[in-house]
Every structure is written in C-alpha cells, then in structure tokens.
Amino acid sequence: MDDTETVTRPDHERFFAIATEQAGYFTTAQASHCGFSSPLLTHHAKSGRFVRVARGLYRFRDYPTSPREELLASWLHLAPGAVVSHESALELLGLSDAIPNLIHLSVPRARRKLARRSGVALHTTTRPFDGADVVVRVGMQLTGPARTIADVAEAGLAPEQVVRATAQAIDRGLTTPSRLREAVLGRGHRVEQLVEIALAGKDT
C-alpha cells in the first residue's frame, strides 16, 4: 500500500479492502492511514475483533485462513522495503513446484541488522528493487522473473531447477533472454554460464 494521506475518521470500507488484499492482515501504518488510531487498534484487539500477530502487525480474527498467509504476514512485518524473493518468489511466480522449507525475503543491505525470525531466510542486497525487478502477486511484492532466477542461481539452487524455471519463464513470456543476461551480470562466471545453458535453444 502506498498511501500518503491519513484520514482522521475511521474508513472501515477502505480498511477492509486493504486487509482483504492481504489475507486479512494489516499493519499499524495501514490502519493509521485509514483513521484507526493506536487506542482504537488496542480496543479492537482487546475485544477480539483483531488479533495481534507481531509488533505492528494484526489480522482480522474472523477472516478465512489462506495457504500463503504465513508468507504474507512475514513480508508485511518487514514492509515497506522488503520483497519476497529466491525460492519463495519462484513458487509464487509458478516457476517451481517445490514448496520452500523457509520463507525467503530480501531487504536492502542497510537493513542487515534486522532481528532474525524463525522460519525466515533473510537476504540482503545492494541491488535496488525497481522497475521489472519487482512485481505483485496475491497482494505481495516480490522479485520479478529474471531477478528471481538470477538470485536462486547465485544462491546455489540445483542447476536442473534453474534450467527448468528459465525455460518456463521464457515459454510463458514472463521474461526475455536479454533481461536474464542483464540480471546475471556481475554475479560470477558460474551463474552466467548456468543461465546461458538454460537459454540454449531459446534465443530467436
């Protein structure tokens, strides 16, 4: 959510619309933008309408559960400035059938001192998240196809999985050979060579 205007009276319709896009979850900042003050949030938490998940993160108690709500909650807890990445992004993009054992999130290197959370693999990077590097799926920001493939290749994902993901991304028009080659520049000869092998026969 990218709202800069904070309302003074609770906007329940807008608030619920935001939470609906996020499997019933919302941050205190998002609540504030919709006119829900800290005392009002505390009141609703005590009454049981909202459930406090973590510092600055809540969910509607009666909202239906979602198969990806743990991933979404972990991402929201670090947003803004965090993106779903690596194997988690690969799965969300439909480029892998494997469910990651960990939730993979990436943040700028400046946030490297964030407290580590159980079940979360936190990656730091000096590469900015902008343009085609970031897409939105099921209400979450994640690395785009080319960057995701470059990230998992650099992180040591099994070569056959990288090759399969690359072929699917090209076949489905999610990225192009030139974007992939640009994404792996500066990531080392092994990564560049792996992507070239994956792209063999895909160039036209």
Describe the structure.
The chain is of the alpha+beta class and 204 residues long. The chain folds into two domains: 12-60, no CATH class; 69-199, no CATH class. Helices cover 42% and strands 17% of the residues. The protein contains nine helices and eight strands. The chain has helices at residues 12-20, 28-33, 38-47, 69-78, 86-92, 145-155, 159-171, 177-184, 189-199; strands at 25-27, 50-54, 57-60, 83-84, 103-108, 120-125, 134-137, 140-143. A three-stranded antiparallel beta sheet has the order 1-3-2. The protein has a three-stranded mixed beta sheet with strand order 4-5-6. Helix 5 (86-92) packs antiparallel against helix 6 and helix 8 (177-184) runs antiparallel to helix 9 (189-199). The longest helix is centred in the last third of the chain and has 13 residues, at 159-171. The protein starts with 11 loop residues before the first helix and ends in a 5-residue tail after the last helix. The model is unreliable at 1-6 (pLDDT under 50).
Please give a quick description of this structure:
This protein is α+β, with helices and mostly antiparallel strands.
Helicity level: 40-55%
Number of strands: 8
Distance between the termini: 39 Å
Overall pLDDT: 87
**If you compute it from the alpha carbons, what radius of gyration comes out, rounded to the nearest whole angstrom?**
19 Å
Shape: elongated
Strand order of the largest sheet: 1-3-2
Could you name the ranges where pLDDT drops below 50 across 5 or more consecutive residues? 1-6
Strand content: 15-25%
Number of structural units classed as domains? 2
Number of helices: 9
Largest sheet: 3 strands, antiparallel
Element-level helix/strand string:
HEHHEEHEHEEEEHHHH
Structural class call reads alpha+beta
